[in-house]
Design goal:
- The chain is mainly α.
- 68% of the residues lie in helices and 0% in strands.
- Helix 4 packs antiparallel against helix 5.
């Protein structure tokens, strides 16, 4: 969770320069980790976390929003 939050903060501070250098796929890595972790942690807590984080403006302009949706789908489907 902290990785997603810190990475999004960093991106929002240096948006123009970062977008020219980093491939958007990097943003999916923390979500892949959370997907794997969801097999061993409270899924309700993770769902609540995702829903709350998605409300934050710092995720609106990035691939994060899509990654949150994909993670929610995976958790909800039990994958």
């Amino acid at each position: 969770k902290a990785c997603i939050e810190e990475y999004s903060q960093w991106l929002s501070e240096d948006e123009e320069e970062v977008r020219q250098v980093f491939f958007g796929g990097y943003q999916s890595i923390p979500f892949t980790i959370l997907k794997e972790a969801s097999k061993h942690i409270d899924k309700k807590e993770l769902l609540d976390y995702c829903l709350e984080e998605m409300k934050k403006k710092k995720y609106a302009n990035y691939d994060f929003y899509d990654n949150f949706h994909k993670l929610l789908g995976k958790i909800a489907s039990g994958q």
